[in-house]
Amino acid sequence: MTMQNLTERPLLLAAVAIGLLLAAYLVRLNQILSSTPEPIRRLSPKRWSGKLLQKTYQRLEAEPITTKSYAHCIPPKLERRYVITGGSGLVGGYMVLQLLERGQPPESIRIVDFRAPNRNDMTSSPAAAAVDFVRADISSAESTDRAFAKPWPASVAHLPLTVFHTAAVIVPSDRSRLVYSFCEAVNVRGTQHVVDSARRAGADVLVSTTSASISIRPVGFWVAPWKLWSRSSKLADAGLRHFWQVLDEADFFEPPREHHEYYANYPASKAAAERIVCVANAPGFRTGCIRPGNGVYGNPTDNTVGGPLNMGVYPTWTCHIVQSFVHGINAAIAHLQFEAVLAMGPEAASAPQAGRPFVVTDPNPPIAYSDLYFAIASLAVTPFRTIPLQPILMLLLSYPIEWYNLLPARVPFLRGLVPQLTADAKHLQPALFSICTHLIASDAVVSKPVEAGGLGYIGVLTTLEGMTQEVVEWNREHKAASAAGTEVVYLTSVSLAEEIKKARGAV
């Protein structure tokens, strides 16, 4: 078609012009989404090298990180008994191991969870295997009460009770209120059930795990076209609201946000749960919350490192994204440090630490996802490669996927008729892109000394050490399985959420 044809057909000319402008807009937006703003680049200027990874791997393979190797960092033993909801999981499991390492007898610890522990480091430990396990669904008040009311051995029944509440369901991609009920049932009402049952059981300390993702604001991707090319619009934000964010506790001291001001249902539910716990703080029942900084990792069952390891071929648009991470060991120690402050006595209820959350992260600058992917590709005995994707194409695709996923909620008679998408595809929804941007967690407050209002938190291991250690464990387990002719299967927290959802639906 010639220019003369176009000029003779003004509507067609207008359509072509609009199409070209739209294409230019999407190309420019893709450039921004594929970039690392200069302020973030300065926070994370160095990438992991192959030499550094090999050196770290060899050191940790020879001297693995165990509870014994960092026992001196675990707060001293307290004469108490413990209920750990979610004690089979990532952070809760490390709490169990740390409590045992510091000398708590197994009979003084009770795991309350939807499933029994299946982590190798827990099932292979005689002490951890001796810890009592009670299966419970915290979305049920009766189930939660039964788990807390179970009699204790006479040797520990007289001891004061601490509750660590780590149980939750993680659904990172749903944002519509139409499908909020699942997160609300487990994360919100479940937390209220745990608080109520803990009180009835006589607990005087409760520390809950929430999430630094509570403070994440939804990213504003669709901005006015002229802002993308504005000379005053630096790559630091390029007109995109919340393209990079600092995760701290400031939002807790502000009025609660509306549901749509959270990036998804999960952080909205965790924010509500956090308020339930913190409002409950009183002299006879001291409470507080730990917010692990964004991605929590530390075992092949996690989503951050274990997810890519389990896939082998990993499509991604996040190689350039810079984020903070926190190892389960570091998060667990922060909970024990919080307990040490709250267990000082009824007067601790008025301490600056009580009735509030603290963000924790690994003791190092943030890393890029390319560091993680390079570590896996360089060190894992199983094949691994990434398939680079264009972020704008994935963002555009996420909207029809969300619309399709919500069909059964919008039109109830379609339930059972509309085929469900597979686990990976159905999570590609717009909310996911707000946690696939640059997120920097700040542990400035929790790291302060106790006398200054902090917890004296110092992470035990860095992200480099923690992620390398996880690959060491992965390799060891897969080499052993290969020699035995068996297969290693892991259940991640997102997979567990699906399992719980199906079980609740069946009931």
UniProtKB/TrEMBL annotation:
<feature type="domain" description="3-beta hydroxysteroid dehydrogenase/isomerase">
    <location>
        <begin position="83"/>
        <end position="214"/>
    </location>
</feature>
<dbReference type="GO" id="GO:0006696">
    <property type="term" value="P:ergosterol biosynthetic process"/>
</dbReference>
<dbReference type="GO" id="GO:0005783">
    <property type="term" value="C:endoplasmic reticulum"/>
</dbReference>
<dbReference type="InterPro" id="IPR036291">
    <property type="entry name" value="NAD(P)-bd_dom_sf"/>
</dbReference>
<comment type="similarity">
    <text>Belongs to the NAD(P)-dependent epimerase/dehydratase family. Dihydroflavonol-4-reductase subfamily.</text>
</comment>
<dbReference type="InterPro" id="IPR002225">
    <property type="entry name" value="3Beta_OHSteriod_DH/Estase"/>
</dbReference>
<dbReference type="Pfam" id="PF01073">
    <property type="entry name" value="3Beta_HSD"/>
</dbReference>
<protein>
    <recommendedName>
        <fullName>3-beta hydroxysteroid dehydrogenase/isomerase domain-containing protein</fullName>
    </recommendedName>
</protein>
<keyword id="KW-0560">Oxidoreductase</keyword>
<dbReference type="GO" id="GO:0000252">
    <property type="term" value="F:3-beta-hydroxysteroid dehydrogenase [NAD(P)+]/C4-decarboxylase activity"/>
</dbReference>
<dbReference type="InterPro" id="IPR050425">
    <property type="entry name" value="NAD(P)_dehydrat-like"/>
</dbReference>
